[in-house]
Give the backbone structure.
Amino acid sequence: MTESIWYDEDSIKLEDLNALHKDTVCELLGIEITEVGSNFIRGTMPADKRTYQPMGLVHGGANVVLAETLGSIAANLVVDTSKYYCVGQEVNANHVRGVRKGLLVGTAFLVYKGRTSQVWDIRLEDERGKLSCISRLTMAVVKHSKPS
């Protein structure tokens, strides 16, 4: 069994993570967090009119929103959020297969955890498990400033 990477694994609840999406682009695109394992986070996004580009394929930007959402949530679950928060520094994506229908499934894995940064790999697959997009996300770990 893989050791957990999460700061406070017992406090992680899917309903709380999904509640963060209210009134955001994630809600607009239908992104949902579906699973948190000991060393990964998984979520879905529908391939539908909300996520399509004009050619009827999932828009590359929508892929990036799903990837960055998964990595950002995961990054903040790794740190003590009473002391730190994580924000995106850089994201890239290679779109390798178009998706026209169904559900995209994204899974984020921690590649590197440092004192001031984290690196995440996020794989997006179609419902058949075929790779659609591979993304890498670098997150800055920022200490909360003390009130003056």
